[in-house]
Amino acid sequence: MRRVGLGAPLRWVALGAGDLKTCPLPSLFYGFCFAAMGLLVTMVFRRTYEYTFALTTGFLLLGPFLAMGLYEISRRREQGAPAALAPTLTVWRRNAGNIGVFVLVLGVVFLVWARASMIVFALFYTTELPSLSGFVGQVLSLQNLEFLAVYFGVGLIFAAIVFAASVVSIPLMLDRNQDAVSAVIASFNALRSNPGPMLVWAVLIVSLTGIGFLSFHVGLVVTMPIIGHASWHAYRELVEPPHSP
């Protein structure tokens, strides 16, 4: 596992933006999918935003799986192969068993988070539930501080676990057919070897995702492909290449 500098995550984002610029059509397809999912969640649960917030933050938990096609676009571009959309749609078949195990774990974590989110709302939200805009206003004005502290504290725990387990795991499974356990261990080693850069990387992921949501999901069309491509470059820079026999 390589050590990188604090500025490395900014370089990954720049490289990710370069992949988006070079391969706009397949990349933006995934961006539109992310934006459509965000809009669908908001519309379906617009009157029960306690579910909206739980499902929306699920983007951060399920993102490593949802971005597999973007990893493949970056991989193919790196190898000089055509970065068409069609091959990226079934890239999971390359290591379906191990990726399936990891995605199952992500799904369980997401369901536990959704339940924990509902419990926090029930126990700590002390005022009558306002409209969605009213709730956002309360968050921005720091009202109901006990609820905010507990909600975001619990969410941070779940996000940190998923982030630590998935920094390089799915790119590693796609690129080298690595088993799920070894890939997760490699991700934890990447975090242990580079705590500062990984913190910067996590902040960038949350910031870019937040920009996407705050722009009424439109920004996700661009920010999510950048994050996906950048994650591939993070993997390539963090993980040592396989030794030649």
From TrEMBL:
Instruction: Name the InterPro entries on file.
Output: DUF2189
Protein name listed in UniProt: DUF2189 membrane protein
Q: Where are the transmembrane segments?
A: 28-45, 51-71, 99-125, 145-168, 199-227
Q: Which UniProt keywords apply?
A: Membrane, Transmembrane, Transmembrane helix
Record flagged with keyword Transmembrane: yes
Q: Which domain of life is it from?
A: Bacteria
